[in-house]
Specification:
The structure holds 2 protein chains of 2 kinds. By secondary structure, chain A is of the alpha/beta class. Chain A has 13 helices and 18 strands. Chain A is globular and about 65 Å long. The longest helix of chain B is centred in the C-terminal third of the chain and has 20 residues. Classes of the chains: A alpha/beta, B alpha/beta. At the A-B interface, α6 of A face α4 of B.
Amino acid sequence: MTDLILSNARLIDPETGYDGAGALRISDGIITDVAKGTGPAAPEGTTVIDCDGKPLAPGIVDMRVSVGEPGERHKESYRSVGRAAAAGGVTTIAVQPDTDPAVDDPAVMEFAMRRAEAASVVRVAPMAALTKGLKGREMTEYGFLLDAGALAFTDASNAIADPTVFRNCLDYANSLGALVVHHPQDPAMKAEGCVTESLFASKLGLPGVHPIAERMMLERDLALVEVTGARYHADMITTAGSLEALTRAKDKGLKVTAGISHHHLVLNEMDLEGYPTFFKLEPPLREEEDRAAMVQAVADGLIDIVISSHRPQDEESKRQPFEVAAIGAVGLETLLPAALKLYHDGLTDLPTLFERLSLAPSRLLGLEGGRLAKGAPADLVLLDPDVPYVLDRFALQSKSKNSPFDRRLMTGKALRTWVAGEEVFAA
Amino acid sequence: MFPHRHLLGIETLSQSDIVTILDQAEEYVELSRQRDKKKAVLKGLTQINIFFENSTRTQASFELAGKRLGADVMNMSLKSSSIAKGETLIDTAVTLNAMHPDLLVVRHRNSGAVGLLAQKVNCSVINAGDGRHEHPTQALLDALTIRRHKGRLHRLTVAICGDINHSRVARSNIMLLNKMENRVRVIAPPTLLPNGIERMGVEVFDDMRKGLEGVDVVMMLRLQQERMQGAFVPSTREYYHRYGLDVEKLALAKDDAIVMHPGPMNRGVEIDPNVADDINRSVIQEQVEMGVAVRMAVMDLLARNIPNA
């Protein structure tokens, strides 16, 4: 295989904070040289791609993606999710175990990974269930699942209500050094709620869940993390009240990280006027003060990771009254432009942004990516951060088209994406 | 004129829309008291009442209203519909639409569901109650009742008491009374108040005695059976003691204050039978009469905009 040179790029390296001219040399799927500045001329026998001065960054590592395989392939297959990820500049997807059947058994995981291997153009990092059937009662076989390739354990959108069960999950996972990812939303407080309790929700007449449901569960989780010393990641933190708890835990030196979906960084509850079911998300969209606080927390690094929270749903399940419509939105192809809003608003530079998108999740999952360094995998995205366009949901690569950003003005997109040096997307 | 295709809520109505409906309804109150109660303004039109949630009173009221105006009225009952077979709301809407109805009267348990259905049909849709969202004809019939008794529908003080949180009647009434420039009070324990209520243009009271002082109108709401036992209020008897409307509490309102209730009543839970049945104070029976007239007016006004294809 001949070497590939990506020249005349604006290198964005979150590891060193470098944002400047340069070139990359890639051999056998690995970055073999990083030349900062204008760099030397390309040697004979290499393929050269001129990046035209555009930003070249490590590909996004998305910590939360739902795929419909096994069980709901009509919503999203490994083939379609791979294409969607590549189009969004995402080179690794951490897939959720909330399939049918759930990934709570090494055999199911092996099946899913065989499908992923055969069909997905991007890397797939499997997460396994924390409890059998995601029911919050009995632990899955963490040891066997780790051997089968699980990079983390989560019950996806199901929070484990029983503190004894969760404590044992943390304790046992900790003995194996495994990462526990939890969705801190108190299910008892949620009850029938489908939006955030607020004046606006009251006017719509939609049953609400108080935002404290998030902080309550997070506080409990953090107390148990303190007891067990386990590695804990809160998949999505969306309320200002939770930030205080998170700060306290980090100050204590607990092995705690937190993420947020890009939806919660740019949308708020006011988008629910007219009951648009594509905006029915989990956690529900929050009030503007919360959204603004979350944006600041991402900029400050208190929130470590920004995710797509990609959750494909078919048209039928969304064409329902709001209260009964399916939950979730596709996000792989809108994550990058939504996150770039922080850059355009002057809140972060590009290396910091890709720290949240690529490096931090990569490190958390124990992967090699997220950096432009010799020896790192050549998982890369070349982007145009400034191009404006109106999103057309039917133009998305994802099999499901449930994007809340349909017909919205977006700024920035991926131009080319490489996984292990292979081009998997070109705009 | 009445510039609306549907009546989905009070929220989209202007002051003059409300007055137009009420003025038209006055005529239908008179008509309904005649021996010959029919006026053929809806002749040739088809009205379908589709109730995804049971209601004897509202459905009967809409049926009678349509029949008095000469429409062909069909009632879709929940049990015989294919909803039970897993057909979605949209499928039902599209199927019904193919039968060329002119007026669809819809009640549904989910907020926003009637509006969703209205997007998928090409006839006029009237919201007969959607979840906790709106019940516009109830608010209009309440307004008509108030106007007839008080001689006006502005600068009145109206207290709405009871389960505000789960009530579409309360939401529609708060909006209508505010639009018509009245003072609205809500009286309820905090467990039955929606989040942000104090920013909806109302004064909030958890002490019923204070809330009733000097009001012109007392509107009681029904407390659903499933909310009486512990989860929202400790017990029926404690609720009645603190929030039930009895003669003693009513004495704090103005001497000529009227008592309203959207029905069906829980006597001895939210209202003392002596108050409910006091012909000098209670206008509950009249509300039912106004209901038919208001629904006739709404359907008449909407039907005037139906083009002659």
